[in-house]
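Hi Y.,

Following your request, here is the sequence exactly as I used it, all 99 residues.
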Amino acid sequence: MSRPPLLSPDEIATRLEALPGWALSGDALRRDFAFADFPEAFGFMTRVAFAAEKLDHHPDWSNVWNRVTVALSTHDAGGVTDLDFQLAHVMQRLMKKTE
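Below is the corresponding structure, written out as C-alpha cells. Let me know if you'd prefer a different format.
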C-alpha cells in the first residue's frame, strides 16, 4: 500500500487546531489520555487497535494504569502524514464516547 506524503509544518499546525490536546513533538503527533481506571484505558486501546488495523497504521503507545500515551508518526515516510491525523481523529471520537 502506498503511503501518503509528509505534511508541511504549516499543514500540521492547521490540522492540529481541530485536535485539542494533541501537539507536534519531534516527528510525531503526541497526546496523553486519562481515564477513570485501567479497564477504561485498556478498552480505549482495544477500540483504537481495531481502527488502526483497518487503516494499516499503528500507534506507538504505552499504558500505565489509567493513562495512555500516544505518538503517531508514519515511520516509512519519516514523519507526520494524513494517516496520523486520520488515526488521531479516530482516537478523539473514541475518547469522547468514554467521557
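The helical segments are 9-16, 38-55, 82-98.

Thanks again,
Q.
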